[in-house]
Amino acid sequence: MAIQRFTKGGFGRQGGVFECGLCGRSTRITVEGQTHLCGQCDEWTMAENAINDGNYNGLPAEELAKAEASILALKRKAAKLGGDPARLGLTAEAL
Ligand SMILES: [Zn+2]
């Protein structure tokens, strides 16, 4: 009888749940990305990186405003799902 030596996943913890490194909420491991972030934090940090990388330079201001609005929406969603607003940089008014 063969011994099963390798377990599936290999992403760290068993059970598929971890704490988001940003907002701190418990979330499931997604197949995408190397980071220990929840889906929302993963998305908004990418969007913010795009802004910081200058991807919106030369584009109409409304494009940047749209990106910033979607970042805020993702942060709010993360907070609603159990993330820490302070760690997400959300003020009480922004919630
Ligand atoms: Zn998060």
Q: Identify the overall geometry.
A: globular
The structure class reads mainly alpha
* Average of per-residue pLDDT values: 84
| Order of H and E elements | EEHH
The overall strand count is: 2
Strand content: 5-15%
Our measurement of the CA-to-CA distance between the termini, rounded to an integer number of angstroms, reads: 57 Å
Major beta sheet, strand line-up: 1-2
Count of alpha/pi helices = 2
The biggest beta sheet is recorded as: 2 strands, antiparallel
Hetero ligands: zinc ion
- Helix-residue proportion: 25-40%
Low-confidence stretches: 6-13
- Radius of gyration over alpha carbons? 17 Å
Using brief descriptors, characterize the structure shown.
binds zinc ion; 2 strands; 95 residues; single chain; mainly alpha; two-stranded antiparallel sheet
